[in-house]
Predict the 3D structure of the following.
Amino acid sequence: MTQARTFKLDEAGQPMKGEDVKVWQQRIKGLFKKMDIDCPIEPDGTYGVNTRSFTAALCHASGLSSGKAMCNGVTSELRTKLRNNDLTPAQRKTKGSKARRDYRQKLRRQWAVKKVHPPVNAILEDSWGYVPGVHDGLDVICKANAAVFAMVKGRVFDVRTEGWWSKSPSGDVSKGDGIVQIEVLETVGPFVKGMHIGYGHCEHPRVKAGDIVEAGEVIALAGLANLWHVHLMVNDGSTTRGKGNRNPRPLLDYSVKHG
């Protein structure tokens, strides 16, 4: 019978690899799940710095001292102890302490899956808001060629690199003639399943029609139309033309606050 390995980095910091490491990574995710914590570990079968850090966090959240528990690496005995929640009375008391409860709550917040994301990371200004019949969206001013993000989980149904806007009011040819449109796939706050979000003046698309995107996924780069910005539009799903019939302000404010 093969003896279970102890996971640790060598003196050069080289990672260990193997199916047993992958099983342990999956176990880490499952044990955190029992604490209602969504651990972002990726089970890739490589014991490196990240997996060591997640193991230390699991030890601490479980009432152990990670420094003592992992001083000789992640032994099979330690893995069994964590898997079976085989704690001493003192460790159980520590696990139930306010400090460790606060730590677990901190991890829940830190590792919570983001459901929304602002359209760009750095909003310099938003101006010329939604005015029915005059301006069908909200201009989100940003840096030149800023990455544009999906604000919520959705299905891309329209990607155009030209022909959406054509020319700026000054008559100069725009560098922001494209558009990406996404159908919202889940209701989150003011985002309602079935509504359409249009990202006007978007260039260099990173997605294509039919793609499913998650909140925070890069979909394009912001274009130039007098200023570098995204013309953010929202409609109720009744049109695919790239027009807005709803005020995007609540969606923008919610994504900035919660994303």
Remarks:
- Residues 16-110 form one domain.
